[in-house]
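I have a small job for you when you get a moment. Would you make up a two-line entry for one protein for me to read? No commentary is needed, just the two lines. Write everything out right here, beneath this request.
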Amino acid sequence: MRAYEELPGAKGRRIFYRPERIAAREAFGAVLPTVEIGDRSHLLDDLSMSGLSVVGANDSHAPGAHVLVRLRVGEALLHEGAARIRRIDRTPTGQRTAMQMDSGYLDVRHLVAKHQELMLERDLDRAVVPDDSLVPADYRRHLSDVLFTFREFRTIADQTEARIRANGGDVEGPEAQRFLTRCEERLVPAWQAFWTKANSLVEPIRYDADALAATKRYTERVLTPEMMGGAICRRSYEKPLGYPGDFQIMNQVYDWQRVGTTLYDKLQHRLGLEIAACVASRAELVRDAMDEEICRHPERVTHITSLGCGSAREVIGYLDAANIGGEANFTLIDQDQGALSYAYERTYPAVIRHGGQVNVQCLNASFIQLLRTGELFGKLPTQDMIYSVGLLDYFQARRARSFISALYDQLSPGGLLMIANMKDVDISCFWPMEFICDWTVVYRTADEMRALATGLDGAEIEVRDDSSARVCMLYVRKPR
């Protein structure tokens, strides 16, 4: 216990108390209130008793302007009051406008309680009257077929497991492994066919926001629970670190093990691995390019940077080789300290073994810092190779072009930029990721990938598919 005179208090400007600002998603969850300023709607960013901030489209209002603010959930009004614009900032996600209430205050607890009541009312109504008109009938029948097949395999797997355990075996033993192999030979091709057909069934509603939301909800209630025994789908759906695609999910793909406490869980995990198989195949393209770039410069150190590196398994795998073609310095950048720890602990022994021929350094940067490439690369030498295989999927076209251009500027003459993106194709990951795992990314064609690199001075541009044909890899070579 500390004495009163040991309590530190605040320093500098923080000595002036300000009401706590609460992130909108922390307060309201997935369905945020709409903020109306005049006749325009905005996305709520955060709020406190004294004010709020929004992000979204640019407004003509300037700091100091007085505006009428309404918070709504659907048509229901949560709050209405006068406010004054205090500050406008430009951010990577758009304009951010901070406002202070002119009259009254925001009763945050009351707003949250009212929002929860409205959400409960909505959910109860939808449970009684499902959105049948928005969910295609052919799609509902298709999900029924998928679920029937899964349940058949579940029944067989449960019966087989009971017999194996009764005879003193377990799900890791040789009899269980033989059974899983026989199941996978039948279930994986069936799953691929189900998946491809589902892609075609949801394509007509892809850009219909209401139908898309209703069909996702239907899928998450009907099919997603069946697949939650699979470790990779469960982690993708639950997002324990707060975002999809964390490094532990990637590691599950690279490890490709039969994970699960029951035979059926192991089968479901195998289907989840099939969805994410392109994670490993896109890394093969990176490793091949890495080897080529290092061999291109045998007389000097080759500088290579991975942006959003995750567990950097392609670097780990490359350094596992007994010999490499030259000297290399790897810079691994990610927002997840755990991912960097994993990568460093597994590359450091190889760095020692290669006797100073290679070096690995790790930079821990926030997502916003990842977008501000000039700050990250400011203290680094120009790079011979820069690659990013898991970021562009989350960027719309304007930001993606800016991101690619900024990275291109950091290349040495003759340097290579490699950017991966999920491919928009009939066998894409769109249906299993978006509808089953609630994992939203941007899918692009090869032509759309090329267009993102147009206008780069003297660039040699090429797009290749990975071996799964579900990833586009953009190659941009800077002239010497």
